């Protein structure tokens, strides 16, 4: 298989959503939640870390487990999940890991001398008298931390959770909390003692009239970056599938809505806005931006297995214009490659940036995905959750299902092959866009084993997308394709 900076950027057996990317020294580190393959809940695994040299973003290194669930004194049994974390380097040179335990609304902190070493429990965000902060009835919900250590040493913690219809019925531990939007809290240099009372910065849907955030109000997934003299707040909007941003010259006030950075269904940028018109199956999104060797990237995630509980990290280059604005980026298979993929070689089908059924795509929920989407294609893998032996593929492609890939640098391509299995009997049509006229087709026959089928093609040279549309009876699993 081709060893390039593909999307998803980590091995296919790894499920790291909510990515917070940081450059420390000569390496790019990604901290995130840790889902389980085909898990039944969010964040079922311990925190791990992956890193890559800033000079080679295709060579990711597994740093191992950096913090276990049962290290938290409130979670000795390890039954509670750790939600999306953030990491910041303190003034003392140590690294601080922030997270919340599921439904607790308590912000915990762990510390380590190195970015990806073994973190040790440090304490809970607390008031000067030592009492745990935001742990009383009526307090806002602490959720999805974002931490900034400013150049003057000031420390800011951002957090919040604001669903459109209030706290979901199953989050009984949060029933006595308020959820009005996104907040900022200033901390002492010790990284855990509260200086200021929480300040509401971002209003929830239904309470944001006149703010400029209408239609893209704050939901969750706080993240903060400072670029030159401007603060960029990145968050998941009430629409769920998109990461948006807001900017200010102050870390504690005056944020102005900027726009959508990325949608995990390419909505808006594809000219559509409804779930079914997404170019990929959508769900919650969480991530942030990072600069590596004078190039900016956005990290976010996609859903697999027809539900929310097995999410994988994605990354795309982005542009920050001279006026500070960020145009929405499209989803691609290229990821961190900074250009089209080679137009020769074998590629795993799992790197599809677009995936749809005959009836379009849709929004995965936390339950019943296998029922509602049983006739839809989806990303999955063989075996159980693990840290080795990648085997991901696209399952359940039926009549008029589409898998799309962007982009390849085509040069005298003469043949395309697909590796599939299943009860399918029909044709795989090849085209250069979702709706363009096919330039070739491959006959598919039923097979219990993954089998290669091929055809001669005459594809135009240059930067091209490639779409595979199956038409026929039965269903197939799509493992890979070969350009030769």
UniProtKB/TrEMBL annotation:
A single GO BP: xylan catabolic process
Origin superkingdom: Bacteria
Annotated site residue numbers, Important for catalytic activity, responsible for pKa modulation of the active site Glu and correct orientation of both the proton donor and substrate: 144
Alphabetized CDD domains for the sequence: GH43_XylA-like (cd18620)
UniProt keyword annotations, A-Z: Carbohydrate metabolism, Glycosidase, Hydrolase, Polysaccharide degradation, Xylan degradation
Single Gene Ontology MF annotation: hydrolase activity, hydrolyzing O-glycosyl compounds
Tagged with keyword Hydrolase: yes
Stored PANTHER family: ENDO-1,4-BETA-XYLANASE, PUTATIVE (AFU_ORTHOLOGUE AFUA_2G04480)-RELATED
Family: Belongs to the glycosyl hydrolase 43 family.
Protein name as annotated: Glycosyl hydrolases family 43
UniProt source species: Evansella caseinilytica
